[in-house]
Design goal:
alpha/beta; Rossmann fold; UDP-N-acetylmuramoyl-L-alanine:D-glutamate ligase; 4 domains; eight-stranded mixed sheet; six-stranded mixed sheet
Length: 660
């Protein structure tokens, strides 16, 4: 019966997935699960099979092969060596079948299927294989025996212990173990077993590719050898430049013809709605599609230790700083960041490290999945920086945002950590949980990670915790709070204060966060992503420290789905308090909002003038450039607040100031 079932499963899998045909071998096909079994195969044949797969750019993921769940470094090292030998040099090997992770009878600490014992031809060959696997990075290939014929079952009953010195030899913590040995032909032994949804993916199309996270992920996948295309309505620097430098052409505009090549998978951005021609084509033609968070979870995060940075403000800087702390200390993390950190030059990277550091956005996932993105990211450590009202197009109150954050908090496991800003009253109810450890950070004395003796300078800051003094090459109190979150997470993961400070010393910041684009004609032009009143206020406070005696112009594009609305009509007046002059552009996509819901720029200007501010309302980038070219003088500062391209205003200002 088992043999019949195995044969049927092979035929079904072969029909559904793209098979890889090796000379002299049956197709290697997608398998859903590996059940007890093993193979003895001549090493030369084994090497030939693996080599062919690698040549076809089918990635080998040693974590998926055998290392998921090993937390003890010695155990993990032994498992990696086993995987190397198994994939390359082993004449015979054994696969462990554990109970599923949710099994009631599994001992605490068990993580489901793990790996395997092996017979190793020689250590040098295993090391070579391990390096080769490392070079190919994270991927989707594991070679596993599928089934053994029942006629040979009785011959396979001998129990064999793990050969790895560092691996456990009892069932404690890893579920029930059953080992078998057999001599089976290749037809009965090989299965190509990637994550089911992505088993046959060789080409991807990103609809809405110029979003920071979409572009970064697309570039990383192309680097892994996949074919990547993308389209977007608005392509502008830095992401358009970033994609062009990596050989990814951005198709201007959305159209059905962009999908005529029928990619294996279409990744649909969260800004895409029903009615978009590419979304409609995908649905009409039953193409395989997913959201970016879906792709990240199943392709890259699952099985790794995920650190997720959430909050209304500071997510990008905090995630970038945390990723750099891990990188600087040799941990080689995977990461996804909603910006471009200068230290990395890219917003995403996928490695074979056990660490994945990701920016967790509360915005919804896609038109077909209205949950917040961070729900998908399998957090082990969850960082909550702060919480304010935002995203007025999908949330109607702070309570609604708290509910979504609460769903995220409930995903943190009992052996994880919830790290939250203890000074933020909106986060307070979310931190009162008992299912996982909770640690608070902040400036208040009752926080576990408590900063004091703050020193704020024009370009840097210092703070102390009870055991150490930190120096940070970032200005502003809000960046001290970001750094505190990083300190708490990094120490939880085993790094020391000195290791953290060493990384702080070399951190270079993030594009579009207080980024000086140029000094043109004596005018300093600064680009900042700020679009929420709190972010604008804190950025201007920091700039006032740096440029205490200089005139600061604040140019604001109401472009986000919240600032286009009038929910912050009054808050924006006080957000610009530290600016000397304010220019407000026309509300973006004005026609899509009812008049009674729109931000009123004219009223904003009147209120600013009442406070004694120089203020102007100018419709677009060209009008603003002309105004500043006439009125801004050498030695003054112009800071552009926008979360979009803003009509390429930065380049236009630089050209105009240099030419006068």
């Amino acid at each position: 019966m088992l043999a019949v079932f195995a044969s049927t499963l092979l035929r079904v899998a072969a029909a559904q997935l793209k098979a890889v045909q090796l000379p002299g071998y049956p197709p290697l096909v997608g398998a859903l699960w590996a059940i007890d079994g093993a193979s003895t195969l001549a090493p030369a044949s084994w090497r030939a099979a693996v080599s062919e797969l690698l040549n076809r750019r089918i990635k080998v993921d040693r974590n998926a092969a055998c290392c998921r769940g090993w937390r003890n470094p010695q155990d993990r090292s032994a498992a990696v060596s086993a995987a190397a030998a198994w994939n390359k040099e082993s004449a015979s090997y054994f696969v462990e079948r554990s109970r599923p992770p949710n099994s009631e009878s599994q001992p605490a600490g068990g993580r489901g299927d793990k790996a395997l014992g092996h017979r190793l031809a020689n250590a040098a060959a295993a090391e070579t294989a391990a390096l080769r696997l490392h070079r190919y990075g994270s991927g989707v290939l594991t070679l596993l025996p599928l089934f053994a014929p029942p006629s040979r079952a009785k011959k396979r009953q001998q129990t064999v212990g793990l050969q790895d010195a560092g691996a456990p030899t009892t069932g404690e913590g890893i579920g029930q173990r059953r080992f078998c040995e057999a001599a089976l032909p290749a037809a009965e032994c090989f299965a190509y077993a990637p994550p089911a949804m992505f088993a046959s993916v060789r080409s991807l199309h990103f609809t809405g590719i110029c979003g920071t996270a979409m572009a970064s992920t697309a570039a990383a996948l192309k680097q892994l050898g996949l074919s990547v295309t993308g389209s977007d309505q608005n392509a502008y620097p830095p992401m358009s430049t970033f994609l062009a430098e990596r050989g990814i052409e951005v198709i201007a505009g959305y159209a059905e013809r962009n999908l005529a090549h029928k990619p294996d998978l279409v990744v649909i951005g969260n800004a895409i709605s029903r009615g978009n021609p590419e979304a409609e084509y995908v649905l009409d033609h039953r193409l395989r599609y997913c959201s970016l968070p879906d792709l990240l979870r199943e392709f890259f995060i699952r099985g790794k230790r995920s650190l997720v940075v959430c909050g209304t403000h500071g997510k990008t800087t905090t995630t970038s700083l945390l990723a750099w702390v891990f990188e600087h200390n040799g941990l080689n993390p995977s990461f996804l960041i909603g910006g471009l950190p200068h230290n990395f030059g890219q917003g995403a990277r996928f490695t074979d490290s056990e660490w994945f550091i990701i920016e967790g956005d509360e915005y919804d996932t896609a038109f077909f999945d209205k949950r917040s993105k961070f729900i998908h990211y399998l957090p082990e450590v969850g960082i909550l920086n702060n919480l304010e009202f935002d995203h007025a197009d999908i949330f109607d109150s702070v309570a609604a945002i708290q509910k979504s954050f609460g769903q995220f908090v409930r995903l943190i496991p009992r052996n994880g950590l919830l790290l939250g800003n203890g000074d933020d009253p909106n986060l307070a109810p979310l931190l009162n949980v008992t299912h996982c450890p909770v640690k608070r950070f902040g400036l208040g004395d009752d926080n576990a990670v408590h900063a004091f003796n703050l020193r704020l300078g024009p370009t840097a800051s210092e703070f102390e915790i009870p055991s150490f003094k930190f120096h940070l090459n970032l200005p502003g109190e809000f960046n001290i709070r970001n750094a505190l979150a990083v300190v708490g997470a990094a120490k939880h993961c085993g790094l020391s204060n000195k290791q953290i400070q060493s990384a702080f010393d070399t951190f270079k910041g993030v594009k579009r966060r207080l980024e000086v684009r140029a000094v043109a004609g004596g005018v300093t032009i600064i680009d900042d992503f700020g679009h929420h009143p709190t972010a604008i206020r804190e950025t201007l406070k920091t700039l006032r420290l740096r440029y205490a005696s200089q005139k600061v112009w604040a140019v604001f594009e109401p472009r986000s789905n919240t600032t286009r609305r009038n929910v912050f009509q009054d808050d924006l007046v006080y957000a610009f308090a530290q600016a000397d002059a304010v220019i407000v552009a026309q509300v973006a996509r004005l026609e899509l909002l009812p008049a009674d819901q729109r931000l009123n720029p004219e009223k904003l200007l009147l209120d600013l003038k009442t406070l004694g501010k120089e203020a102007a309302y100018l419709a677009d980038a060209d009008a603003i450039v002309a105004h500043l070219a006439q009125h801004a003088q050498g030695g003054e500062v112009v800071v552009i607040f926008s979360n979009g391209g803003f009509g390429n205003i930065h380049a236009k200002l630089i050209e105009r100031f240099n030419g006068r």
